[in-house]
Description:
The chain is of the alpha/beta class. The protein is built from 5 helices and 12 strands.
Amino acid sequence: MERRKFIKNSLLGAAGASLIGGLYTWQVEPFWLEFVHVNMPIKNLPDHLEGKTLMQISDIHVGNKFNYNYVIESFEKAKLLEPDFVVYTGDFVSYENEEQLEQLQTVMKSTVNGKLGTAGVLGNHDYGGDWVEQHVADAITNVLEEAGITILINDEKEFDGLNIMGIDDYWGLNFDPTKITSKYDAKKANIMLCHNPDVCDLDVWNNYKGWILSGHTHGGQVKPPFLNPPILPVENKRYNAGEIDLFDGRTLYINRALGNLYQVRFNVRPEITVFKLSKS
């Protein structure tokens, strides 16, 4: 009898733990935002930008996969930090139909803008079904630019001495990295935005030295303790999340995403990154 009672209690305990764990990965961690603070040394940084902040927001995935009011609430928290620069690194929507354009307009009423500049690049989901719908990308770009975000499609823009360069999405219709890397001027204070970090392994960089800010991976969204995420949407499985030295003068930072492609996270909290600029 004691043995039966032990087995019964063990099974009940395991079932209870599974239920609690499931609720945590579904209802808690997907909305447990973390502000990650990182030092960002930049070559040729003007004196007046020393100590300024640059905020990276990535992969908000506005749509029907989760309650996007969480994104609005996160934006309001981010505004309290009063960032000097804000960059968005793609996947603004999880596109299904034109409803996502209306949802994005609602969310972008709370856009986080930098005091000195705001820029972004598109991700693969911003190109609609199978990443081949240019009209979807154009409509999303219009919404974002109306919200004060300069979208860089293989282009660059200088904001108060900080030159922000942007590569359009690797899987999208307008991927043309050499169009912007050919303009690389090593004498400027540069950072590069590139949604998909796999681009870092292509021979397109024209000896670029500096930071590359990416998203796309979501850190895998589920990561067993002490192990790598079982699912990553990149060829180079080293490109998981966080700061990665590419050992050639480039430093890659992969944001874990603010939004969720699917409403499940474990050991990979959603992230907004706050970089503190300094001279290299």
